[in-house]
User: Fold this.
Amino acid sequence: MKALFDLHTHTLASGHAFSTLKENIEEAGRKGLWAIGTSDHAEKMPGANPNVFINYKVVQKSVEGVRVFCGIEANICDFDGTIDVEEPLLQKMDYVMASLHTPCIQSGTAEQNTAALIGAMKNPYVKIIAHPDDSRYPLDYEALVQATKELGAALELNNSSLIPDSTRLNGRENAKVLLNTCKRFGAPVILGSDAHIWYDVGRFDEVYALLEEVDFPQELILNLSPDGIRAVLNESCTRI
Assistant:
């Protein structure tokens, strides 16, 4: 099993990450990735620099043999799924992921948290739900997976959630439930490193182990083919 791209990476522009875009791209090349996506946090995350997104035009489509896609990790701000990115900016992104973060929204019931994620996916630009695996935000996985399939989005299997010192709670146990539910309904997943420092770009060791443990079908893993990226790109993306 070999992932060809990693769309969940962060740079100094997120405010709490440690590397530059150049360092992340170089690491993607060293790890043999076909493509990397840069997806810094949107403005409601403390320390985030929203100005970086309006200057993506300077980023080349390919750098040192690695394709580069420019996206954003939007913050979900209420249980209706409202995100902190307006449509004019969404239109300029190659892809948009959305997620729940403690500085941006307090947890509700499993029903409310699930409604927040489904509401975000109803935004036509949101094609990835990042790290839906944190017990601080309990979820109804069956309802979430069914909605994901109906709305044409993908749920992320996040390597950072599976490491022993993750700030997210019960990530591995929740990811296992997520994978088994996706397998049951035939819903795709996308692998993401959630790298906040260059050497974690393309790191999927924990993810690979869990995929093998649950015998997850490879045809439902978007990262295993260059064509898989098309499922999560905005229609306006010209970098493919």
Remarks:
- The mean pLDDT is 97.
